[in-house]
Amino acid sequence: MIAAMRNVTKLYGRNYGVRNLNLTLPAGEVVGLLGVNGSGKTTVLKLLAGLLVPTSGEVSVLGAPPRHNRARIAFLGETDALYRWMNPRDAERLMSGLYPDFRPARYRDLLDQLRVPGVKAGAMSKGERMRLRLAMSLARDALLYLFDEPLGGIDLVSRERIIRSLVAEWRTDAAVIVATHAVAESEGLFDRVVFLDRGELVLDARAEDLRAQGKSVRATFLEVLG
């Protein structure tokens, strides 16, 4: 098991970020964390990344609290923190210095796959910056990949390239969790889908089981959360 959350509650003052959440993330799965804005998706990812501490319950990554295994976690947050002066080669030098598991050759391949231009981040579109950030994350040999809205607010061509790269880089020894409300575009990406509503888990199902029932992930999203 790569990661687990057991009876996890996170409070922000009197408001619940997540409530009594139980979740397991085995190796070899791409999990879609689905819900509307404010449903708790980002809170779940930050708890798994060790950026937040639960109010109650237990979060573990590789059998220990996330803060003990941050070197094995790749977290791509929704906030774009790229420096405007940074180009892809600058990003490569930065990542090589920060993360021993960063693979420059894989990174360059990803830049080609994602068609990231060799210009400064300040001259890139939002979609191009997201593709650069995704290449930076996927070029690491992490065991837990956490992606927060990687398809949000970007053009359809960029979305398609990002999905293709996520599928191409899928590894059986790692777990991937993608938080998104772009359900239709990412339909074929997920092995498993977890639906959140106001911080509570309302459905945890395998995507193939839904399809066997004649339901798409999008239709299930509308049924469960609509």
Walk me through this protein's architecture.
- With 226 residues, the protein is of the alpha/beta class.
- The chain has 2 domains: 3-69 and 143-225, P-loop containing nucleotide triphosphate hydrolases (Rossmann fold, 3-Layer(aba) Sandwich), CATH 3.40.50; 83-141.
- Helices cover 32% and strands 27% of the residues.
- It contains 7 helices and 9 strands.
- The strands form 2 sheets. A 6-stranded mixed sheet has the order 5-6-7-3-8-9, with helices on both faces.
- A hairpin with a 2-residue loop joins strand 1 (3-12) and strand 2.
- The longest helix has 13 residues, at 126-138.
- 41% of the residues are buried.
- The mean pLDDT is 91.
Strand order of the largest sheet: 5-6-7-3-8-9
- CATH class bucket of the largest domain: Alpha Beta
Write down the overall mean pLDDT: 91
The CATH H-level superfamily of the largest domain is P-loop containing nucleotide triphosphate hydrolases
Secondary-structure-derived class: alpha/beta
The helix tally amounts to 7
Order of helices and strands: EEEHEEHHHEHEEEHH
The first-to-last residue Cα distance is 32 Å
Beta-strand residue fraction: 25-35%
Map the helices and strands.
Elements: E1 3-12, E2 15-25, E3 30-34, H1 41-49, E4 56-61, E5 73-76, H2 88-98, H3 104-114, H4 126-138, E6 144-148, H5 156-168, E7 175-180, E8 192-197, E9 200-206, H6 207-212, H7 217-225
Parallel strand pairs: 3-7, 3-8, 5-6, 6-7
Antiparallel strand pairs: 1-2, 1-4, 8-9
Main features:
226 residues; Rossmann fold; globular; 2 domains; three-stranded antiparallel beta sheet; 32% helix; alpha/beta
